[in-house]
Write a structure and sequence with these properties.
Number of helices: 14
Strand order of the largest sheet: 4-10-9-8-7-5-6
Bound molecules: pyridoxal-5'-phosphate
Strand content: 5-15%
Distance between the termini: 87 Å
Largest sheet: 7 strands, mixed
Number of strands: 14
Length: 434
């Protein structure tokens, strides 16, 4: 065994050396590529750091920030998407506890293979009712719901052309990009551009207009009714992402389309259970037949484990609760209006389209990050910087999401801190706030 190397062994050793050399070169190449990709992010001030926070049940928006060195600091969260505080609502928590006690943790399968439970069916019925549709279909998230639905539609409608708003969420862009069908990007909320693009195409081609009701970064609304009019005129289907509106707008929380009495003119609604509903998961609501087809053709629905029953139970409780809690919706809008009024009073350049989202434009990634760091370190106020590619370069911002649980004490502290820091950083105030 331990004798001198034979000719065969020598050959093997040489091959091993060559392989090792290859592996070395490959590892070096990967290292260099990753280093330069990450360095680029640092240079542009958009390297992302995740803040470690621990939410404590019943105390939102108060939480604990755990620093990298292990020390702790109490903070107030001002950038969460738990818009109504439903993530800690007793109705939601007790529904989840009860479901866990009855059925355990996971669903144990895909929807097709043992993973459909009474909780999933109940939640889908709750969502169909919320939007006045025949059916609804659950997905792991609204990201997946958008991606899976939009990438599957051309399989069902050969020749489909999708008209997509330029500021649509990444999940819609991804679904439309991957579907291999024709797409037209129209300028954000620009009806003339949309009309021109519809007119330029074959009248006989199947068409779909995909847009959002509330755009999450500026907080502006789509001209839903006018888009529905164009859809009627050109025989197009309508697909609306109401992720930043469900639970919060409309007399039962059905979104802006419900508020504006346009639900019947929308063919497919997309929503999330993770933002205002405070839990996790996404869905589409549409005709029974469309849900039936997507259910059977979308890989993103078929080949993945269904949501845990407790998650479905919590989401259903949240949706059901918000169908009647108009007071919470009113308080949410009131809190947002007060924060905007107070920031405008300081002359800070906020964007105000009348929604619940309060973006404060800083306009430079490094300043935005610096402000965010100082708010956290010096004042215990947590608001994540929003940089490219989430928003266009030059419009970097802090995006505040006031909720019914952000009281006047929290708001006083925020306004005071921003006033001090804006002065300290010598940032511009709006000439005339408006
Ligand atoms: C957050 C978001 C989504 C994705 O929702 P998740 O349920 O978190 O995956 C989809 N569309 C828009 C506009 C969003 O902001």
């Amino acid at each position: 065994m331990a004798g001198p190397l034979g000719p065969k062994d020598r050959k093997t050793k040489k091959a091993d050396d060559v392989t090792a050399l290859h592996n070395d070169a490959r590892a070096r190449m990967l290292d260099e590529a990753l280093d330069s990709a990450i360095a680029r992010l640092h240079e542009e001030g958009r390297y992302r750091t995740f803040i470690d926070i621990e939410r404590e049940s019943g105390r939102y928006p108060h939480a604990t920030w755990r620093r990298p060195d292990g020390s702790e600091r109490p903070i107030t969260v001002w950038c969460g998407n738990d818009y109504l505080g439903m993530g800690q609502h007793p109705v939601v928590l007790s529904a989840m506890h009860e479901a866990i006690d009855r059925t355990g943790a996971g669903s144990g399968g895909t929807r097709n293979i043992s993973g459909t439970t009474v909780y999933h069916k109940r939640l889908e019925a709750e969502l169909a009712d919320l939007h006045g549709k025949e059916g609804a279909l659950l997905f792991t998230s609204a990201y997946i719901a958008n991606d899976a639905t939009l990438s599957t539609l051309p399989k069902l409608l050969p020749g489909l052309i999708i008209y997509s708003d330029a500021l649509n969420h990444a999940s819609m862009i991804e679904g439309i990009r991957r579907n291999g069908g024709a797409k037209r990007i129209f300028r954000h909320n620009d009806l003339e551009d949309l009309r021109a693009k519809l007119e330029a195409d074959d009248p006989a081609a199947p068409k779909l207009i995909a847009f959002e009701s509330v755009y999450s970064m500026d907080g502006d609304f789509a001209p839903i009714e006018a888009i529905c009019d164009l859809a009627d005129e050109f025989g197009a289907l309508t697909y609306i992402d109401e992720v930043h509106a469900v639970g919060m707008y409309g007399p039962r929380g059905g979104g802006v389309a419900e508020r504006d009495r346009l639900s019947a003119r929308i063919d497919i609604v997309n929503g999330t259970l993770a933002k205002a509903f405070g839990v996790m998961g996404g869905y589409i609501a549409a005709s029974h037949k469309l849900c039936d087809a997507i259910r059977s053709y979308a890989p993103g629905f078929i080949f993945t484990t269904s949501l845990p029953p407790a998650v479905a139970a919590g989401a259903a409780a949240s949706v059901a609760h918000l169908k009647t809690d108009q007071a919470l919706r009113d308080l949410h809008q009131e809190r947002a209006a007060v924060l905007k009024l107070r920031l405008r009073g300081l002359g800070l350049p906020i964007i105000d389209h009348g929604s619940h989202i309060v973006p404060l434009i800083v306009g430079d990634p490094k300043h935005t990050k610096l402000l965010s760091d100082m708010l956290l370190d010096d004042f215990g106020i947590y608001v994540q910087p929003i940089n490219f590619p989430t928003v266009p370069r030059g419009t970097e911002r802090l995006r505040f999401t006031p909720s019914p649980v952000h009281g006047s004490g929290e708001m006083d502290a925020l306004v005071r801190a921003l006033d001090i820091l804006w002065g300290r950083c010598a940032l511009n105030r709006a000439e005339l706030a408006g």
